Amino acid sequence: MEKLLSSSGGGGAAAAVASQGQLPDCFVFPADRRPPASTATVSLPVIDLSGPRDAVRRAVLDAGKELGFFQVVNHGVPPEVMREMAAVCEEFFRLPAEDKAAFYSDAEENPNRLFSSTIYEVGDQRYWRDCLRLACGFPVADDTNTHWPDKPHHLREVAEKFFVATRGLGIELLRLLCEGMGLRPDYFELDLTAGDVIINVNHYPPCPDPSLTLGLPPHCDRNLITLLLQGDVFGLQVSYNGDWINVEPVPDAFVVNFGHLLEIATNGVLKSIEHRAMTNSAVARTSVATFMMPPMECLVGPAKELVAAGDQPQYRTVTFREFMRIYKTVGARRESVEKAFKI
């Protein structure tokens, strides 16, 4: 990717051109790939996790089977932790370009970096997003390998609290799924969640012409489960019956979706659903996505308990390293990944 470093100082390609008044050609999509208008009237379920456990378990499993996406409230992550994380991330992207330049990198093997949608390039088009990626091992206090930006000065303190709280929520949701599907409650708490927790802070500057581009393309996530703090600016859309559902912001909620690893592990009971990010011309949008990852050598395959006697598993078992190699090769579209791993 040709970085616009001459004008951004490494601060991000989208941010560098956001104020130029017109959309550069490299961000303009061909007519057949431009975002069509959504006509869907379906809303994502909003699940109150403080309700009776049996009812919550059924609601989470039903929403996962039907839509693969839902929102959760009263989830145990303190509102002040959510607000502080949103604020410090917005503060990071308001820093002068020179304060962010040293952290800018297109090296995908670098777990902590600032970049501009390089992993979703298709042809000569770029997506209207700058992203700060941070990785953290657990326990947080024992993780001495985190190389994070030193500005804003309180970013590390705030982010560590957010990492711990969102990972705890993710584990609780996975336990609810296990209970609902007849797996032992800690099935996903061993190797499948023993890797880093990764946070993508997605920043979408105001776009000169949102009808010509996307913030993120249609894609499915590569992990087990994703928690999104989407803020109060609309932008997320979810695929549903050939259309796109607008995900309306809900105060103090997380948007939850399942990744390909969970689809494989549940032998197709739960689905990884495509989603995308829209842009707007009026205001910047910043969202924070938390991904729970396995180690690279972890084996990923259908749980034996979910393969009926006499049946064959629907997906082959591979290491996560092999999964990622294929995922990057075929792209993040659902159909391509499904074809690559289904037996």
TrEMBL record:
Gene3D superfamilies: B-lactam Antibiotic, Isopenicillin N Synthase, Chain. Coiled coil: none annotated. The keyword Metal-binding applies. GO terms for molecular function: metal ion binding; oxidoreductase activity. Residues 193-294 form the Fe2OG dioxygenase domain. Keywords: Iron, Metal-binding, Oxidoreductase. The keyword DNA damage does not apply. Belongs to the iron/ascorbate-dependent oxidoreductase family. This is Fe2OG dioxygenase domain-containing protein. It comes from Oryza punctata.
